[in-house]
Amino acid sequence: MKIAKIVSSNSHVDYVGRVIDRLDADAPPAATDYGFAQFVCLPLDAETLDRVLYNTQLPNPEYAHFGPRLSTAADLKVLSPDYLDEQGVLVGILLLGWRDALGQRAHHSVPRRVVPAGAEVFRMTDDEAQAFHLNLNGQLQLHYYSQVIAHAGAFAVPLIEAIVEQMEPRCTPEERQRLCVLKKSLVWQRTMGGVRL
Q1: Is 71 a domain residue?
Q2: Which of 7, 157, 160, 169 has the most beta carbons within 10 angstroms of its beta carbon?
Q3: pTM of this structure
Q4: Range of the structural domain that residue 187 is part of
Q5: pLDDT (tens digit per residue) in 81-135
Q6: SS3 20
Q7: Is 197 among the domain residues?
Q8: Strands 90-99 and 106-107: what pairing?
């Protein structure tokens, strides 16, 4: 399901997408389709870039307009059909890795490819997200951990925790033990991270 289009970037791994709304499509995505820690992908020519949503911004240009309103929103559709509704939802999209053209091998690293403005962002299914997290031996991998910590800012720890929660139900008991150690480390980082000595 298409949920957004790339509108800008903050870096090579941190992009901003504008969520498709009722002006772009007859059936826009629901809020649950672009929530925090939702896995998304950008299919490009030779590869698919896999990402995760980690931030939301709500631009509302009307907020600063304190003058009287001469028409209601419903009247504007009839009286001024060219009036644009500039409110929207912007989502922060963090690059996690990429898949080759066949989609068989997932790479948890930064691709050389630059994402063009206007590229379409699609919601990944649970099965696609799980497949992205498995190595060639079918074992769970989270090699993008340091990338998330470095680029997601204050959302880094909650984002990793949300990803772990999504992956845990499909893991083997051994993998769950490894994730448990990771979760304890994240709790420690969140608890002690604000302490200054």
Answers
A1: yes
A2: 160
A3: 0.81
A4: 2-192
A5: 555 566 789 999 999 998 877 666 888 988 888 899 999 999 999 999 998 998 8
A6: coil
A7: no
A8: antiparallel
Q: Which of 68, 69, 87 is nearest to 79 (CA)?
A: 69
Give the number of domains in the chain: 1
> Is the CB of residue 97 less than 8 Å from the CB of residue 12?
no
Residue in the block written with tokens 């053209």: 101
Strand segments (E) across the chain: 2-9, 14-19, 39-43, 48-57, 90-99, 106-107, 120-123
- Tokens representing 70 are 């001469």
Residue 13 forms part of a structural domain: yes
Amino acid identity, residue 28? P
Q: Are 192 and 161 in contact (CB under 8 A)?
A: no
Whether 174 maps to a domain, the answer reads yes
Indicate the pairing of strand 48-57 with strand 120-123. unpaired
CA 147-57-142 angle, 5° bins: 20
Crossing angle of the two packed helices 156-167 and 173-192, in degrees rounded to 10: 160
